[in-house]
Amino acid sequence: MVSVLCTLALLPGTARADNPIVQHIYTADPAPLVHDGRVYLYTGHDEDGSTWFTMKEWRVWSSADMVNWTDHGSPMSVATFSWASKDAWAGQAVQRNGKFYWYVPVVNRATGRMAIGVGVSDSPTGPFRDAIGRPLVENGEIDPTVFIDDNGQAYLYWGNPNLWYVRLNADMTSFSGSPTQVPLTTAGFGARTGDAARPTLYEEGPWVFKRNGLYYNVFAAKCCSEFIAYSTAPSPTGPWTYRGTVMPTQGNSFTNHAGLVDFKGGSYFFYHNGALPGGGGFTRSVAVERFAYNPDGSIPTITMSTG
Ligand code: FUB
Q1: Among the residues of the chain, which ranges form H helices?
Q2: Per residue in 20-31, pLDDT tens?
Q3: Spacing, Cα 249 to ligand 1 middle (Å)
Q4: Residue 6: how many CA atoms within 13 Å on its side-chain side?
Q5: Running DSSP on this structure, what letter comes out for residue 22?
Q6: Most buried one in 82, 152, 216, 300, CB count within 10 A?
Q7: Atom of ligand 1 nearest to the CA of 143
Q8: CA distance 134 to 128
């Protein structure tokens, strides 16, 4: 659990130190990025607790100590993408060559289907502009995660109900060839029962990273009381081996969404739940737990400190 050293008043420009991290608006789909001594936390914004997601913008928060968080407002929204109509869903930002690239799923007005756009900025806090003026990927699926390997090759993964990846070009805003579909085997992603269309646990929200030479894919499993599970592989393209549960179903939200970073000697697991008053599946809140990898690199079971 994150130690709470202080609790800030709910002043503009601040967020509270304890879980949930943000307590004055609803936030979802956390995507942390470590840069220059700070953790930048990119989130969605749940604006209405009715019967479906109402998400029009993304938000940025940052912290140097994982206790005090600064609110950087909303430097990117659906309106940033002239071709987009709605649904500012789960994305991830990465830094390369002095620029920050933020990959997000959003509905393409022309097709009515989800596409992946990419925003770019000179600063981790924006403002972000549409990097290419059109979708980067169009196949109706969601939840991009971006990973740059040690040799400089960048990968974009995404998908629900499938899992896809492309190798991004060095410009981070284009790719060569066609998207590759990852084989969703039960050995790779666990076995689901009772849904012939989805034989594995993989649902959505992949988060791919490398640690001590091992590639991890931490993902949301088995809608619609999602838990967080993970797979590992010897390469960024697999083959993946299912490794089990990271965070069990908990927390008054039918989705969950993971983001992991190492920061100043600690490992941190970000997620969301419905822990705030009025919280639920469409009024979520991002939270974080500090944890330690097991000596063999496996991830321990992490439970929510609130929710
Ligand atoms: O926030 C909208 C969607 O819910 C995300 O894209 C999924 O990962 C789930 O959290």
Answers
A1: 186-189
A2: 999 999 999 999
A3: 15
A4: 9
A5: -
A6: 216
A7: 6
A8: 15
Dihedral angle computed from the Cα positions of residues 179, 180, 185 and 187, in that order, rounded to the nearest 10 degrees: -120
Contact 94, 76 (CB under 8 A): no
Confirm if 238 and 220 have CB atoms less than 8 A apart.
no
Distance, first Cα to last Cα, the chain: 13
Q: Which two tokens stand for residue 228?
A: 């967080």
- pTM to 2 decimal places: 0.94
Cα distances from 232 to residues 129, 184, 210, 216, 251, in angstroms, run 34, 13, 9, 5, 26
Q: How far apart are CA 150 and CA 275, in angstroms?
A: 38
Q: Rg for the chain (alpha carbons), in Å?
A: 18
| Tens digit of each residue's pLDDT (9 = 90 or more) over 234-265 | 999 999 999 999 999 999 999 999 999 999 99
Kindly report the backbone phi and psi dihedral angles of residue 12, in degrees, each rounded to the nearest multiple of 5, phi listed first. Answer: -55, 140
Instruction: Report cis status (omega within 30 of 0) of the bond before 161.
Output: yes
- Decide whether any atom of ligand 1 lies within 6 Å of the 141 Cβ: no
User: 254 CA distance to ligand 1 centroid (A)?
Assistant: 10
The residues with which 94 forms a beta bridge, in sequence order, are: 101
| 257 Cβ inside 6 Å of ligand 1 | yes
Instruction: Name the one residue in this structure whose structure tokens are 């599946």.
Output: 281
Q: What's the CA-to-centroid distance between 151 and ligand 1, angstroms?
A: 31
Do the Cβ atoms of 257 and 29 come closer than 8 Å?
yes
Give me 149's structure tokens. 């390997």
Rounded CA gap, 57 and 225, in Å? 25
Provide the 8-state DSSP code for 133. Answer: S
The alpha carbon of 153 and the centre of ligand 1 are apart by a number of angstroms equal to: 27
Q: Which residue from 116, 142, 226 has its CB within 8 A of the most atoms of ligand 1, so it is best to mutate?
A: 142
Confidence category of residue 18, pLDDT binned at 50, 70, 90:
confident
What is d(CA 71, CA 74) in angstroms, rounded to the nearest whole number? 9
